[in-house]
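Subject: for your reference before the review

Hello V.,

The reviewers asked for a structural picture of the protein, and I figured it would be easier to keep everything in one thread rather than splitting it across files. Below is the amino acid sequence we used in the manuscript, unchanged from the supplementary table.
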Amino acid sequence: MYAYGISIHMYHIISIVACNILTEIKDDMKLNQLSDKYAAAWEKLAEYVVNGNKGHALGIYRLLSHSLKDKALMHQLEGDILLSFNDIPAAIEPYKQAAQTYQQDNRLLEAALVFDHLSLIQPNVDEHISNARELYKRLALDQANTQRLQTNVTRS
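And here is what came back from the structure prediction:
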């Protein structure tokens, strides 16, 4: 049941990513035929995940990953695919790469959420929780400073 739930979850994640990519592609009307191919490939990827065909899913993912502009999302999606096949050891590194890339892109909430996810996968690894806590603290400070600045601006 757990693996099936993950597969259905992955199907939804892949569908969302595919929709976002196709929206970007369709902005350029010259690529309409190409966007149909991408849609079919993303659909095939989701089908392979749901049917438990890891080799084919990863093969399609590798081809499609070149179409992703968001490298952090690319790593996260790879981790999600590997996790959907219960390949926890292989999923860890892509998740770590995703979190690091999110941090480099100053997308701290996404990084913290990936570290949270890692802490659920590897509950005995304290590093994941401490990384998430540190990021949440930075986010709270950023939010407090933003609110303070907004208050000062309205008083002026």
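For the response letter, the relevant points are probably these. The domain at 2-155 is CATH 1.25.40 (Serine Threonine Protein Phosphatase 5, Tetratricopeptide repeat). The helical segments are 2-26, 32-51, 54-65, 71-84, 88-104, 108-121, 126-155.

Happy to draft the paragraph if you're swamped.

O.
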